[in-house]
Amino acid sequence: MKTMLSGIKPSGQMTLGNYIGALKNFVAYQDEYEMMVFIANLHCITVPQDPATLKKNLKDAVALYLACGLDPNKATIFLQSDVLEHAQMGWIVNCHTYLGELNRQTQYKDKVAKGETSLSAGLYTYPALMAADILIYDADYVPVGEDQKQHVELCRDLAERFNNRYGEVFKVPEPVIPKVGARILSLSDPTKKMSKSEDNDKGCITLLEDLKSVRKKIMSAVTDSVGIIQYDPVNQPGLANLLQIHSSLSHEPIESIVARFEGKGYGELKKEVADVVCAELEKIQAAYTEIINSGTMEAILAEGAQKASRIARKKLNKVQRKVGIEIFRK
Ligand code: AMP
Ligand code: TRP
Fold first, then answer.
1. HSE-up of residue 105 (Cα within 13 Å, Cβ side)
2. Is the model's pTM score more than 0.90?
3. What is the pLDDT of residues 223-264, one digit of tens each?
């Protein structure tokens, strides 16, 4: 069975974008692949965090993984920092990553371009740790949203670099990007992606949000003045975003939704999108409440970390041997 691996960095509350672009797909793939999913808590602290809020967000993220349908009997679910090998492999990968490559990563570049100061070294080298996360499990596939594609591509380059330098060390992974919903846009500014940095903003829906507020945000989503319901992401990005959200949750093809709404107004479409989103979130929120109070999460994470560690330790030993930093064979 091929291995699929992905992580989510809950540096805020999980969003509808996370769900559609990533989480929902992990669930869909868990029967088909050896699935490894983790909470990237080491990545969270690449930007300043309030410890108590971070802890809550991490716990919520685990509960939401499960609430969205990840099954610990099928998928290995763990906390990144519980598997110490990630940090160790991260260092080795760091030492094989060029500054030029890190300079080109948009996540860092954008922050510099915006004039943000006090950026941490961890933020800069974050893609090297992410590559280590993937390579340590010999993942074949990495399901992510559009914004992470560049990081997976760097990971591929790094895998090839190791293989050229030391002989076969790593599998070269492939990103898996959903056809619909890889980049859910902000509801208030459809030129930007929906992101949790806008948590309190009208543009972002979080998975645990009050459904009344969700409905309100969708009903007041920014669209355009064209006035025709059609799928045109370039000229009508707000509308296209609503159609993508609908289609990825309802599984109804975009053309079919467009055809049903021919001659109708944006308000009617928004109402149906709100119905679809609220129905999905209602299910998730009910499951979340049950899980967060069930006392089962600790054991699930412990078991996941144990299973992941066994694989990671073996790989790390091999890499240390190949790189020549080991003295006696383990
Ligand atoms: P992050 O929250 O940055 O850790 O992202 C976790 C996963 O969700 C990654 O695979 C992202 O690509 C995906 N993701 C985050 N925001 C969006 C969005 N607005 N649309 C689609 N996918 C997203
Ligand atoms: N960097 C990813 C994000 O911000 C999270 C992540 C960390 C990840 N390690 C990973 C995703 C490995 C896929 C594979 O969304």
1. 24
2. yes
3. 999 999 999 999 999 999 999 999 999 999 999 999 999 999
Q: Look at residue 77 and give its three-state secondary structure.
A: strand
Q: Which tokens in the block code for residue 65?
A: 């993984």
Backbone angles phi, psi at 142, to 5 degrees: -130, 100
Q: What distances in angstroms separate CA 218 from CA 6, 23, 243, one per listed residue?
A: 29, 21, 12
- Probe residue for ligand 2, chosen from 6, 78, 138 as the CB with the greatest number of ligand atoms within 8 Å: 6
Write down the catalytic residue from 193, 217, 315, 322: 193
Six-digit token pair at 100?
């030029």
CA–CA gap between residue 59 and residue 186 (Å, rounded):
25
Which two three-digit tokens encode residue 131? 């590559």
3-state secondary structure of 83: coil
- In angstroms, the CA 27 to CA 320 distance is 34
According to DSSP, residue 20 is labeled I
CA distance 111 to 23: 26
- φ, ψ of residue 72 to 5 degrees: the values are -60, -15
Rounded Cα distance, 16 and 19, in Å: 5
* DSSP notation for 186-210: PSS-TTSB--GGGTTSTT--BTTS-
Q: Is 196 a catalytic residue?
A: yes
DSSP code of 15? Answer: B
Among residues 111, 171, 202, 271, the one annotated as catalytic is 111
Which residues, 6+ apart, have CB-to-CB distance to 100 below 8 Å? none
Amino acid at site 67: A
| Euclidean distance between CA atoms 204 and 76, whole angstroms | 29
Task: Please give the Cα distance from 194 to 280 (Å, whole number).
Answer: 18
Dmax (CA) for the chain in angstroms is 74
109 is catalytic: no
Q: What local confidence, expressed as pLDDT, does residue 11 receive?
A: 86
